[in-house]
Amino acid sequence: METLNSAVDDLARSQAEEATLAALVSQYAGALYRVAYSVLRNPADAEDAVQEAFLRVLRHRDTLDEVRDQRVWLIRIVWNIVLDRKRRAKTRPETDDVAELARVLPCDGLSAEQLAAAAQHHAHVLTCVDKLPVKERQVLQLSAFEELNSVEISQVLGITESSVRSRLFRARNLMAELLNHPRSSK
Amino acid sequence: MTSTSQNAYSYNSISATGPQAVSDSVESTLRLIARLPVPEGLERRVISGLNAAPRAVRVLHWPAALHPSRSWMRGAAAAAIVFVVAGGGWGVYTRVQPSQPARVLVMPPRAGAGGGFSSAGAMRTPQTLNGPMVANPIAAQSNKDQAANSRPAQVKPLNKALARTGPMTHARAQAVAPNKASAQPAVSAAK
Fold first, then answer.
1. Alpha-carbon gap: B88 to the closest alpha carbon of chain A (Å)
2. Contact between A43 and B47 using a beta-carbon 8 Å cutoff
3. Which of A89, A79, A44 has the alpha carbon at shortest distance from A155?
4. Residue B161: is its pLDDT beyond 80?
5. Which burial class, exposed, middle or buried, applies to A102 when counting CB atoms under 10 A from its CB (0-12, 13-18, 19+)?
6. A122 with B32: Cβ contact below 8 A
7. Test mutation, B30, B31, B40, B60, chain A, max A CBs within 10 A
8. Contacts of A79 in chain B (CB under 8 A)
9. Which of A8, B2, B75, B186 has its CA 20 to 30 A from that of A128?
10. Which residue has the higher pLDDT, B1 or B156?
11. Global pTM?
């Protein structure tokens, strides 16, 4: 009788965990995908990163109740996965990614000439972003997400909020220099 | 619509070189990336991947009677552990012999320890004999000559045998002696 009760409890617990996990996926998969795509710039790689992030959540589902902010926690998980993948795939040239991404970006309502110019501009901006130091680049990339404020960015990166602000300030200044004087910069 | 207006703004701001304009241009590009549409079916694929992932396996499933939450089961397990540890210790204690005192061999005092030369371990070996000696070789030869003169037909094979065996030994000379005794009367009779 006790065996039957324990089996029923296990079944109910596993079903509840599955339901919680499905809710997390439906709520945050899109945000995680965009965070992954902003760094990896490849749809398949970004989707793999999201999948791996939820697999890690599945492995640590026992500690899911202890997490205060699940959204920031999930973004931090996928951010670490993405950085790890980016570090491993460093041998691949990034110029192709930039050109492909600039072509994919939405440019509705523009003429063909404006589309070509906009794609060229986006590619130039992304190339300059890649030239930024790592710390400033990470803050700048995360600040583009409207879902994240400076406090949440500091939680994702594991730094203080004042560090986030100072890095963001430096990143903007460096980007202005790079875009205005591209040849004077390294 | 928002992205279109932002994109047009960013495109128009390429020529504007003010820091605020540059910053807006950069962030508008990054926001475009951040707002990219999620591919269709992403959630379904993620959930199916999670369902296909291997779950943690429970290796042991205790039956209800032996469940660890029962106190008597814990007591029995503790007793079994104590019994095994104590039994192992007792087995080791009974099998290992206590160390015996070392045996000391007392060496006799050396005779020539007072000084002088030592033999350096050399042993005296007695002189051995060089083998059996030939007794009266000359007499044996004369007897042989006499026998040859008296009975040449019978002595000849003996001489051949002696020649084959080499020098006459003492034992062989004694074996020849009866021939000498039988040949002597014939010689004297011939004289």
1. 36
2. no
3. A79
4. no
5. buried
6. yes
7. B30
8. none
9. B2
10. B156
11. 0.54
